[in-house]
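Researcher: Good morning. I'm working through a list of sequences from a screen, and I'd like to move beyond sequence-only analysis. For each chain I'm collecting a predicted structure so we can compare shapes side by side. This is the next one on the list. No need for commentary yet; just the structure.
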Amino acid sequence: MDELIVKAGLALPLSEIVLSYVRAQGAGGQNVNKVATAVHLRFDIRASSLPEEVKVRLLGLHDQRLTMEGEIVIKAQNHRTQEKNREEALTRLAELIKAATVVRRKRRPTRPTAGSKERRLEGKVKRGLVKERRGKVDGE
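Model: Good morning. Structure tokens for this chain:
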């Protein structure tokens, strides 16, 4: 496997993805202190072979995994083995890129219906009457 398949017709060469292995955080006993099972995945969006529109959408994401330099950083440490953490990191990257390939339809603004305007105004009149009736009672 020399490429990461994002979806049909879109794959990334693994040479564009930098993987480094570090010690995982948290509980795990003695094993966690001596074995580097956690995976740090770095992917430079601008230097990648992705289509330009996908790059733009990825760079426009408001995601904490995206750095100011345009790199995606993913840390996977849920599993006890390097291989499973590597697979999880690659899967998360593929899902992120796949989500950026979806083109959102532009929202077309709509106008309120005549009925909704009428109901809104009726509600305002009723509320005004309620407030008007809160005044002092005339003691004739």
